[in-house]
Amino acid sequence: MVEVNKQEPNEFEKRGINPFNNPTPGEGLTRSPDERFPWEQAPRFTEMKPAIEEIFLTISEKEPLIELIGLLQNGTPVDEIAQVILYKGMTSGAFNMDLMLMLVEPTMYLLIAIAEEYEIEPVIYEGQDDDLIDEEDYKQEKDRQTLGKKLPEVRKDSVPESLLQRVKTLPEKEELGIEE
Predict the structure, then answer these.
(1) How many whole angstroms separate alpha carbon 121 and alpha carbon 136?
(2) How far apart are CA 114 and CA 97, in angstroms?
(3) Cβ neighbours of residue 137 under 8 Å, at least 6 residues apart?
């Protein structure tokens, strides 16, 4: 049995944390209906195009763009960046959970387009390099799987063309004060 020295402060006291200062289970259900969280109210956006345009405008401002470029240069996966952006938008009431899920693909394509504009090789997801197989194995597996089947077309309309054109007008690294 572990002996506890009551003369020394415990970990909670050292950090200044009260472990009992938490909400009571079910306390959130007793809140007044007038005091709603942003995600419990009607979202600001209900359609994909205005929502993805708002995301673009937000991440293309100078400070967020500098942070984004830094994250991409450090090898942060695009899917993780997209998750953070979309979760923040959902919790702030910009869009509901359903639209958040629909925005995953266009947001990732937008981030990839920004990375390519700044000549950064983006990491799409964690472990991407582990999934790479040599080209010969890929061709053999593809041939085996597609015997007589028509492959689906890649959707090119995930991100509106107008947004992709606007990515090309983003400021250069030098204008943002970013060094290679």
Answers:
(1) 24
(2) 25
(3) none
The pLDDT tens digits of the residues spanning 20-50 come to 777 778 776 777 778 888 888 899 999 999 9
Domain encompassing residue 117: 49-127+157-170
Amino acid in position 15? R
Query: What tokens does 15 get?
Result: 């950090």
Q: How many domains does the chain have?
A: 1
Cα–Cα distance for residue pair 179/150, rounded to 1 Å: 46
The answer to whether position 163 is within a domain reads: yes
Q: Is there a domain that residue 95 lies in? A: yes
Q: Which residues, in sequence order, are CB contacts of 161 under 8 Å at separation 6+?
A: none
pTM score, two decimals? 0.68
Exposed, middle or buried: residue 21 (CB in 10 Å: 0-12, 13-18, 19+)?
A: exposed
